[in-house]
Amino acid sequence: MDGTADEYREALDAAHRHALAWLESTAERPIRPDLDAEGMLGRLRRELPEEGADAAAVVDELAEAAEPGLMAMGSPRFYGFVIGGAYPAALAADWLVSAWDQNTGSRQPTPATAAVEEVAAAWLLDLLGLPGDSGVGFATGATSANLSCLVTGRDAVLRARGFDPVSDVRKAPRVRFLAGAAVHTSVVLGGRLSGMGAPRTVGADAEGRIDVDGLRRSLAEDDAPTVVALQAGDVHSGAFDDFTSAIAVAREAGAWVHVDGAFGLWAAASPRFAALTAGLSDADSWATDAHKTLNVPYDCGVAIVRDEAAMTASLGAHASYLPAVASVSDPYDRVAELSRRARGVPVWAVLRSLGRRGVVALVDGLADAASGLAEGFRGIDGLDVLNDVVFTQVCLAARDDASTAALGEWLRAEGTVWASSSSWHGRTVVRFAVSNRGTDAEAVHRTVETVARGAAALGISR
């Protein structure tokens, strides 16, 4: 074996050793990092050395230096920010993606990874009950996936009015952008970056579901070209919009309908949630994250558009040096990137590993864990569950905001459980987003027990 191969082997062996040590520690180590960013900079900051170092030694140095600043996000008791874990097949496939180092923008130079992604896309559409000929792009996350869909929607409603969004951009009318009052910040950012601006909100009910009557009134104000954003899974309550009614109202006005389903779109894979997702497949576009509910390593968002031709017209890249087959779109025609890693390969791996039944069991299991948390929290004196727990989100509060804030801080400092603090309906909450495949009955029990200890320590419960 030549020296180059040996060097890779030694470096990868070191990475493998550190990775296994990390994974083996994740379930029981304190979830919080020991050092904050400034502490880590104090540990890492130095002048760039004049001389290089052995690759394996560099890996050792990196792993040892970084460990105090790592959050155990893969813990089954990590509930922050709607972040999933990683299935073994997905993680291993992601390592292969890095080793193969295929720039999966075009089908011609990277046929293997492009084909794997196309199969993964077909499987996703089938699982989620979406039109089988939809365009699918693998983006960095729900933010970039939402942006890809919103840009496509913006252009489509302009074309429907006879304007070319490229050549007629200066004389084209402004596109109206509407959403419910609980619209997620990633959709707001997508509206800004697409030039439509932040969405005008039309109201929502107490759980965050869009006010359909408010949407109807807003649409009736004029006949401007319009994009409407709905959501599958409110970030606080987990609630789903009434897709059947909202899409029907939007269709009457000729609007494009986009669904932000960062974590909630996966509910469409389970028959158990058919009532929540009814009508969802009638939208024009959908965005989700595979690194949330599906438990694929970061990063992997998915942009889906019913009309693939509209998607490629808006996002497609063309240059004399780029290989292309006129009859088939390329991966870079469906996301706002020319160069990217083969993010869809770990998606293929996890779907192949789980099969349809496994995906359904994953989705149902996450929802069961959220229900279990809610049931346990309701038994703790002084604490209330504020939302209707319909999917994977649980919002917990004490009787006053100061106590709730203190509970969140206590949990994050204690280290057994990590949950985000937020504000919902004017109240401070501790938000538990169940996203990790490992959050089983034992993890639920330990979480409830830890919250109960925290409430007692802070004098919340008597």
UniProtKB/TrEMBL annotation:
Cofactor: pyridoxal 5'-phosphate
UniProt keyword annotations, A-Z: Aminotransferase, Decarboxylase, Lyase, Pyridoxal phosphate, Transferase
Gene3D superfamilies linked: Aspartate Aminotransferase, domain 1 (3.90.1150.10), dopa decarboxylase, N-terminal domain (1.20.1340.10), Type I PLP-dependent aspartate aminotransferase-like (Major domain) (3.40.640.10)
GO MF assignments: transaminase activity
Pfam (any one): Pyridoxal_deC
Record has Thylakoid as a keyword: no
PANTHER family associated with the record: GROUP II PYRIDOXAL-5-PHOSPHATE DECARBOXYLASE (PTHR11999), MIP05841P (PTHR11999:SF70)
Family, as annotated: Belongs to the group II decarboxylase family.
Name of protein: Aspartate aminotransferase family protein
Provenance organism: Microbacterium gallinarum
